[in-house]
Every structure is written in structure tokens, then in C-alpha cells.
Amino acid sequence: MSKMDDFRLDLIAATENAGWQQPVGATEPSNQVGVEYWRDQVERVKDLSERELDVFLMLGAGKSNRAMAQQLSIAERTVKAHVTQILSKLEVESRLQAGLVSYAFQLSPEGAACRDRGRPLVQSTSA
Question: What distances in angstroms separate CA 100 from CA 49, 58, 70, 75, one per listed residue?
Fold first, then answer.
């Protein structure tokens, strides 16, 4: 089994154990340590500012800095600063990891609350 397969199973298990929606084709977790890791990352989302949360949710949708800047009517440099803050607050090393945490967050009950407030989520169509 590859590291990506392990990651996928850990992410599925973390969302499932928290009572979140289960993705299609989900299987059993392979590593309980990974489950705790992702749960901790999602818990840190509450530390983000409102604007950082907007950028964070767009990361989960795979948006570029330029697309985020245009949609939020801010400078691309400001988006980069928000991404840097997000990485620090979530204690992740890359934009990809932050995007994956965003995706997991959006499957959570807290993510559903963001959807109800009209925040941009992974279903966003523009990139």
C-alpha cells in the first residue's frame, strides 16, 4: 500500500470517527496515529481569522492565489500572506496539506455551518 493510500484511509477514518460524511468508496483506517493527526489539524481551523478562513476554504477547492485574489478583491500578495499564516496556524508544511485539511474540514459539521453562511467550499466551480 502506498503512502497516498495510507493518507486517504487516514483522512477517511478521521472524518468517519468524527461523525462526518463518508466519501464514496471509503474503507477501514490503516493507522490510528494518522486519524488523530488530521483531527488535530481540523481542530486548529478555529484559530483562523475570517479572511484566512475564506482563503483556507478556497485552498480546499484548489484555487490559485490569483483566483482567490480576484474573488476576494484583494492583492495576490495579500493572499500569499494569508496562506503563510494558515500554514503556520494549522502547523502544516505545504499548501497541499492545508488544502487537504480544508477538504476534511468541509466534510465536518463545522464546515457545513460555513456552507450555510455562504462561504466558498470545495464545490466551487471557478478556479
Answer: 19, 11, 22, 24
Q: What is the pLDDT of residues 8-23, one digit of tens each?
A: 666 666 655 555 544 4
| CATH class of residue range 3-116 | alpha beta
Its sign, for the CA torsion 28, 41, 4, 2, is negative
Whole-structure pTM over 0.85, yes or no? Answer: no
Domain boundaries, the chain: 3-116
48 by DSSP, 3-state: which?
A: coil
Measured from the Cβ of residue 28, the count of other Cβ atoms closer than 10 Å reads: 8
CA 30 to chain centre: 21
